[in-house]
Amino acid sequence: MSRRILIILGQPSSSSLCAALAHAYADAARQSGAEVRLLQLGDMAFDPILHHGYQRVQPLEPDLQAAQADITWAQHLVWVYPIWWGGLPALLKGFLDRTFLPGFAFKYRPNSALWDRLLAGRSAELLVTMDSPPWYYRWVQRQPGHRQMKQTILEFSGIKPVRVHSFGPVIRSSDATRARWIQRAHTLGARAGAR
């Protein structure tokens, strides 16, 4: 049975380096036998603001309902996005706020500080671009965006292992360097699809 992979492109532009990485990963995973779906957040219609927190139900738009169905379907989630201001792009954060809801991604236990991780059984990869050198983002800035996505969102919801792949610095990178990064995404996709 082929592996089910969902790729979520969190960069709003479909002509970005992130888009090229996502498509290279998807193409290689398909060629390796995986069943692949791709969500491009920039093409989806939804309000990214969770207006009332968890106090009131905010009905999900059709695109978010379909996204939750895709997340449920997937065995492996691949998140492709840039680091902006040290963290996730607003559109991606809004998507997570609206879809990773109680009852879908997690469930608090009554009278307890513990919770159930409702998305357990899935793995994830993060393909993340940045203008900072990856070593600087890791050792000086302490990877706030990576830690948020990996630990406080995905692992909190039961998704593990989560592997992080950083691509940077993008600013002033050469065409040859970008081509190497796209080839690396292709290699990662081939590896994931063959599992």
From TrEMBL:
Pfam families: Flavodoxin_2
Any GO molecular function: NAD(P)H dehydrogenase (quinone) activity
Organism name: Comamonas terrigena
GO cellular component: cytosol
Keywords: Oxidoreductase, Signal
Similarity comment: Belongs to the NAD(P)H dehydrogenase (quinone) family.
Record-annotated Flavodoxin-like fold domain positions: 4-180
InterPro entries, alphabetized: Flavodoxin_fold, Flavoprotein-like_sf, NAD(P)H_dehydrogenase_qn
Protein name: Flavodoxin family protein
Entry keyword annotation includes Ligase: no
Signal peptide boundaries: 1-19
Tree of life domain: Bacteria
